[in-house]
Amino acid sequence: MTDVIDLHVHTAPDTFPRLGDDLAIARACAAAGMAGMAVKCHYEGTAARAHLVNQQVPGFTMFGGITLNYPVGGINPAAVHSCLAIGGRVVWMPSGHAHYHSEVTGTLGGWGNSFMQLYNPPDATGLTVLDGDGRLTDAAREVVRLVAAADALLATSHLSPHEILAVLDDAADVGTRVLVNHVMYMPQCDLDFIAEIVRRGGYVEICSVLVSGFWDKLRLDDVQAVIDRVGAGRVVLASDGGGIQTPMPHESLRVLADNLLHRGVPESELRRMLVDNPRHLLGLSGRQSTPQSKEDA
Question: Which regions in the chain score pLDDT beneath 70?
Answer without folding.
Answer: 286-297
